[in-house]
Amino acid sequence: MKVLLLFFSLLIVGCSTKSEINRLDGSKINASELSLKIQSLVKSANVTGIAISIFNTNEIVFKEAFGYANYKTKDSLQTDQVFYGASLSKAVFGYLVADLVIDGTIELDRPLQEYLDVPIPQLHFEKEWKGFQEIADDTRYEKVTARMCLSHTTGFPNWRWINRQGVFEPEGKLQFYFDPGTQYSYSGEAMMLLQYVVEHITGKGLEQLARERIFKPLNMDMTSYVWQNRFKENYVNGHTSNQVVLQKDTEDEAGAAGSLETTLDDYEKFVKHILQQSGKPPNVTKLMFTPNIKIQSKMQFGPLSLENTAENDNIELNYGLGWGLLRSPYGYGAFKEGHSEGFQHYSIIFPEKQIGIIILSNSDNAERIFKELLEISIADIYTPWRWENYIPYDSK
Question: Quick check: pTM over 0.85?
Fold first, then answer.
């Protein structure tokens, strides 16, 4: 047993900054005890690697990395290594757009069409498949606003090649599934439309805007919406549920919906900034975390996303600008997940309690421990784990 514990201790990189962690319900957990519990979860669920930061009073009180950056080479995971951030990209973009709203660059409820010189279906894209020509005969595009794009209420699918049931359709076409502003349905397509409009209004690309307004001011030197050469020697590989190492896929075109590369060390700077700014002028976070649409779907994706339920009424599940929202006895929570082949992430903050957590993983098994991990670390029993499809690894 002692040998086994020694083996797993060697897979932990980083250290807790406090001996105890305050949880939402007022209880505490010893940092060493939490580390051992996480080790056990990682081993039991075959999670390749996972990196975690926890906030108390808006400061980091726990930061550790567990497991491997590359299972084949057995390189230990580090908190300064670059992860593919997947849809954490949308959380950063939500903040960026809210910042642009504050300075008057864009209005949340003004139709995006009014910012353009040509109809949205006639916009030119170098890659034709990114265009909106397929909705030329559906004038509902004239009603789409920035708020709708960021709160996933445009009526667009997530991606045109994936239908609402989650089935891949290589010949799928862009379309409206419902009238804009009337329902919730997660959409990367909507984010990309808003990105185009923001770039058109400002005359700057997404990467430049993010670097000027977020990455540089917060010293996020290892974060970018496009692949950087400086990441080459320090990145994390994704892994399948069977520990197969996935080759790194690099992106040379910034995408608000999901091209972010970041480290735990960097992303915690972003989340810390949001926690510290919550409720303060110029109230960027108030814009981000104002509820926009009540979510009644049984699950966020797949066939059950088309079924309504009252299961999440007790947490008032809703969506803000790029972030999901919920209500707890300790105030509201703002959360954002990231999910792609080989990478599974989650973050949630409770600004009124000044508590939060970031979870980055390079394993397709990671979401299977998120429910228990959230409960033991910060006593978060409010994240809608069934809606997120975070089914525990030991569930029957």
Answer: yes
